[in-house]
Specification:
- The chain has 8 helices and 10 strands.
- The longest helix is centred in the C-terminal third of the chain and has 18 residues.
- 40% of the residues are buried.
- Helix 3 packs across helix 4, helix 4 packs across helix 5 and helix 5 runs parallel beside helix 6.
- It folds into 2 domains: 170 residues, 3-Layer(aba) Sandwich (Rossmann fold), CATH 3.40.50; 66 residues, no CATH class.
- It is an alpha/beta fold.
- It has a 6-stranded mixed β-sheet, sandwiched between helices. Strands 2-1-4-5 form a 4-stranded antiparallel β-sheet.
Amino acid sequence: MTSPDPAPALEISHVSHAFGAVKALDDVSLRVPRGAFTALLGVNGAGKTTLFSLVTRLYNNTSGTIRVAGHDLRRAPSQALRRLGVVFQSRALDADLTVRQNLMYHAALHGIPRRPAAVRVAEVLALVDLADRAPARVSALSGGQMRRAEIARALIHDPELLLLDEATVGLDVKSRAEVLALTRRLIADHGVSALWATHILDEITPADGLVILHRGRVLHDGTAATAAPHGDLTRAFLDLTGVAA
């Protein structure tokens, strides 16, 4: 007998959210498959950060359902959140502590005992090519190194799904490419899934999953290739959203 297919890494169904009279999300549904890179594309104000805030329970979703690896976020929040690793747009590391101290602190928040935590910190720093920067203060890191350290922090508890909210904002071209390549390598080599929120179209390849979010509504949920069958994702995005070129 074949076992049933595992639940998607993330499944959002009919989720809406408003701030007073302003509707930030309007009946949003999307899926992130396991072991895949899915881009969440939208201009600033499209609702990407609001959606991430709901998935991470910074805001409470009162409509629809959010499931992480099959776990309902409202009914089983601990099980769902345990499977999430998050890199927010704003910096999350303490600049006055070393990279190792930041990660050890984060491991403690996840209830990982000190000895296994030290082993795990060494593992994730190696994964993001920062093993030699473990004793450095975060304030001494470059922008790209800081982003990779934040990805290491997000990996500390071995999550199944990474949420990355505009992870390359403020980085130079080389650092942007390194952070993006690292995320894709983690998917290919370690089987994690990733939802990559961005407004930068050239970070997306034709084979990537693609969700286009505009003014709180999903306009496309498929692959980049199906969104732009003629190969011009910029033109397809502008046509779908009505954003002026």
